[in-house]
Design brief:
Largest sheet: 9 strands, mixed
Radius of gyration: 26 Å
Number of strands: 11
Number of helices: 14
CATH topology of the largest domain: Rossmann fold
Shape: globular
CATH class of the largest domain: Alpha Beta
Strand content: 5-15%
Structural class: alpha/beta
Order of helices and strands: HHHHHHEHEHEEHEHEEEEEHEHHH
Helix content: 25-40%
Distance between the termini: 76 Å
Strand order of the largest sheet: 3-2-1-4-5-7-6-8-11
CATH architecture of the largest domain: 3-Layer(aba) Sandwich
Number of domains: 3
């Protein structure tokens, strides 16, 4: 461990644990583990090109998050959610910032995105911050394994009370802050310069995070982040007024309602916010005073009894819809799809009390007309129902006969 730190002073100095010589450790088990890892072809050119070691590390982060349950969300965001955020923002070039970076999944996916689309890894600069000391070390190791250079500060620190990147104006903000955090010591920050759109309530940090992200955005910057669903509609403790002010400042670019069971930290559904400083950036269509709503609550597949994932095809559809709406080159033509997406004006949002829940705007999914007249369809379905009632009665009688044959029932 000491040797590894010496060879990687920028990323790992003082980060790695050095307690593997303690007496109570099972030396035989440790030896078997080293032998097992030693047989994996991590160093040959073929496997190195596939980022095998990084994928192994990411796999174990996911397993630890699953085992930890609710607390696992502190250091791990579901891969499909990170992938969707990155595909939406297209962080090809510029400064990428995550002020609650956990184990660094947002950074890793950003680098993978650039590489997958033929760009240069060095075209993006990474800035992060993490308050939990163990998680901060996990992030340092995650980046070091992949040779990703990033500025995570010299120590773990709370972004609200010890902002390590005070002067940073980022081109992209990617984040999954703690949901509904009531222990953020907001009473100490009542006069903070970041609260441009309203002082966030002491009992909930959601809109403190939102305004922290906005504060660190460059003039053409864009932010994508995860928040609890309550942030879209809550009017408690002044949150509704803050949300209204952010909407009227024309910062809300897109809102996405996600399905439940995507996260290790909570089973409740959450949402994605996308904020843009400049909706009339020359690269895009003029979308001033408009917001795109996307509802994907019915999407995703169950990967085990309690966890769901969005598929690559679903991610591509969601991101493609957003890029078409923004007018990105080669993204196609956007159109509203009932039950899935809707482009709404700021006036429409005002009519709904500045609530940002996508379901209010996208409406119900259209049911395809099969051409069968209603009267004929009702007669056919009624006849089928009568047949099923008859079959049900027959099966019930057969079951009762079998029970009587066994000496049970009347």
């Amino acid at each position: 461990m000491v040797s590894i730190e010496k060879d990687n002073p920028r990323h790992l100095k003082g980060v790695l644990p050095k307690n593997y010589a303690r007496q109570e450790l099972d030396k035989q088990r440790l030896g078997e583990l080293i032998d097992l890892i030693g047989t994996i072809g991590l160093g040959d050119a073929e496997n190195r090109s596939k980022d095998i070691l990084g994928r192994v590390y990411e796999y174990f982060l996911g397993q630890f998050a699953s085992a930890e349950g609710k607390t696992g969300g502190q250091f791990y965001t579901a891969r499909c959610v990170v992938q969707l955020l990155v595909e939406m923002l297209n962080p090809y070039k510029g400064r990428v910032y995550d002020p609650c970076c956990g184990s660094g999944g947002m950074f890793v996916q950003s680098e993978k995105f650039v590489e997958a689309h033929g760009g240069r890894i060095g075209d993006i600069s990474i800035y992060g911050q993490e308050s939990n000391p163990t998680t901060w070390r996990l992030c340092r190791m995650n980046l070091a394994i992949r040779s990703i250079d990033g500025d995570l500060g010299s120590h773990n620190a709370d972004s609200f009370h010890d902002d390590l990147h005070k002067d940073l104006k980022a081109d992209f903000v990617l984040a999954n802050p703690p949901f509904n955090d009531s222990d953020w010591k907001g009473e100490q920050l009542r006069e903070d310069v970041r609260w441009k759109y309203g002082v966030p309530p002491v009992g909930n940090a959601n809109f403190a995070w939102v305004q922290h992200f906005i504060h660190h955005l460059a003039p053409n910057g864009i932010a994508g982040f995860v928040l609890a669903n309550g942030s879209m509609s809550s009017n408690q403790s002044g949150e509704g007024e803050i949300r209204k002010n952010i909407i009227e400042a024309d910062l809300v670019d897109c809102m996405i309602a996600l399905p439940g069971q995507l996260f290790y930290s909570t089973q409740i559904p959450v949402c994605l916010w996308f904020l843009a400083r400049n909706k009339r950036n020359s690269k895009f269509r003029d979308r001033r005073r408009q917001t795109l709503f996307i509802d994907v609550r019915k999407m995703g597949v169950m990967i085990d009894r309690v966890h769901r994932e969005l598929t690559d095809e679903e991610i591509a559809r969601i991101a493609g819809t957003y890029h078409a709406w923004r007018g990105d080159e080669g993204a196609g033509v956007y159109q509203d799809v009932p039950g899935f997406c809707k482009s709404a004006t700021t006036e429409e949002l005002a009519a709904h009390g500045f609530v940002l829940t996508p379901g209010r705007y996208v409406g119900a999914e259209e049911v395809e007309d099969d051409g069968e007249p209603f009267a004929e369809k009702l007669a056919r379905l009624t006849e089928k129902l009568e047949e099923q009632f008859a079959e049900s009665a027959r099966l019930e009688a057969a079951i009762r006969d079998n029970l009587r044959g066994l000496g049970y029932g009347k």
